[in-house]
Amino acid sequence: MPFFIVKNDITKMKVDAIVNAANRSLLGGGGVDCAIHRAAGQKLLEECRTLGGCEAGEAKLTLGYDLPAKYVIHTVGPIWHNGLYSEKEILYSCYENSLYLARSKGVESIAFPLISAGAYGYPRDKAISVAEKAIKDFLAENDMTVYLVLFDGTSYAFSKKRFDELRDYIGDRYAEEHKESISTLYRRKFRAKQRAALDLCTNAEPSFGNSSASVDIMPEMCDAEALIDYSGISKKIDEMLDESFSEMLLRKIDERGMTDSACYKKANIDRKLFSKIRSYRLYRPSKATAIAFAVALELDLNETANMLKKAGYALSHSNKFDLIIEYFIERGIYDVYEINEALFAFDQQLLGA
Ligand code: AR6
User: Which residues of the chain have pLDDT under 70?
Assistant: First the structure.
């Protein structure tokens, strides 16, 4: 099941369990520990008193009391010295032990803060890498929805070099796109109306946010009917009926010699959503879902465009989301987690579901 980086206050997360970056006493402290105790109420501290503390890298569970989450998992991160005191291994254990403890309680969704990256001084980018590695390793073998909640300083959560490169890449292409003539824009709008009309004929999964929706169904669409060439539309429907998105996806999975589960896990897609797509031939995924599969299948830009077309979408240079995807595919980088870090840094919808 999927992994997401989100900006939030962890005490507000509506998940089965949240994780607390505690200290060895488990009796409260500053930072996220303080926020969790404050939001959960006095009973949390009372239960914590019965636990006998916790060693670094280990995890203990309590109820969530006044929190939206049913459980709090308390773990103690390493204090950062210089990286030579097994900090990485201890931090990895914090995530691993918390996840397995959560699994033993039947938890289906869990949210982590960035353990050790506050008072304990662990460098933020390094802390994110460890968190991602531990979560990814766990999700390769287990089903759970995992959130990494970043609270502050979120301008970028990954390599500064990559961030700068991407910013330039987006800047260059964005500028090019906006040099377009009015007539080109007019033609594009007209084509969008045609596609919108076609969308009405298909079963649509709602898409979220503006950034990744390729076509807005415009209110004035009904007035545009006179402009629509219906023979073109029915030809498009025929083309779509040749091979649907779902059929193309399943064919590509076979051609790649992948298993279904390897594919949906790599795509950061929930098993239930994959089953829906698998069993309904004309299922229309959201654009982010369609791209997630293209990435999991390691399609090049042409093949990605082809696959997106099956679901009624295209990549364009007029939105950041598309440009970020294009940047990674052009470079043959097909790691959804890495792409999601970049999408997160640029405030875009993440891949997966
Ligand atoms: N929601 C999500 N993340 C938060 C929140 C929040 N409400 N508040 C802070 N963070 P820290 P540590 C982030 O210092 O480094 C405590 O006193 C914060 O921005 O809370 O593991 C304990 O009792 C940072 O990125 O935990 C220990 O003594 C991350 O949570 C000690 O601090 C972790 O910062 C543990 O230090």
Answer: 1, 153-158, 175-191, 193-241, 353
Bridge partner residues of 100 (DSSP): none
Nearest CA to ligand 1 atom 7: 9
Write down the domain spans for the chain: 3-157, 176-345
Task: Give me the pLDDT at residue 233, please.
Answer: 62
Cα 10 to Cα 25: distance, rounded to the nearest angstrom: 21
Instruction: Enter the pTM of the model.
Output: 0.77
From the CA of 353, how far away is ligand 1's center (Å)?
27
Q: Is the CB–ligand 1 distance for residue 119 below 6 Å? A: yes
Domain 3-157 CATH assignment equals 3.40.220.10? yes
Distances (CA, A) of 255 to 37, 297, 304: 52, 10, 15
* Residue 169 neighbours by CB distance under 10 Å: 16
